[in-house]
Amino acid sequence: MVATQIVNLPRVMKDDDRFYLSVFGIEFLSQNTVLLPDGWCLQEEETRKVLRDSRGHVRAEILSFDTSIGVSTYLRVLRRYMATWKHVRVGTQSAIESIVVDSDGNVLYRGGDIYLQKGQSLVAIIDYAVFVGRQWLSTHFPHFEDPLAYWD
Description:
Blueprint: E1 6-8, H1 15-23, E2 27-28, E3 33-35, E4 41-44, E5 49-52, E6 58-67, E7 70-77, E8 81-90, E9 93-102, E10 107-115, H2 122-140
Antiparallel strand pairs: 1-3, 2-3, 4-5, 5-6, 6-7, 8-9, 9-10
């Protein structure tokens, strides 16, 4: 088990996310310095940093990206289950797959492939793939948008 630790989080985060972190038991010592609960840790992964709870679940992610004025970093509290999409190749065709994942990246549901046709809007297809996943979530996990739901 990881002992209680003090870590620095990004200054940029939504007020709601700051609130949820406090509900999770994270104590803000300053604007971006926090005391994590026992067993929680901040881990660096290949493309991001993640905040893991005492059970090893990813509760928040810290993302960085380059902008015209430098690197911007922000924190995002995750929901336990999320609808997303994945680009796949089926033979010689490209498709967008609708998927539902948990906060650790495990796939719970695959909604099928949506094939890209010439002239179609990729953004519209991605939006539809996420919509399919959200429909599945609303049936199976009706409170999926609540960051406090489904962690136990």
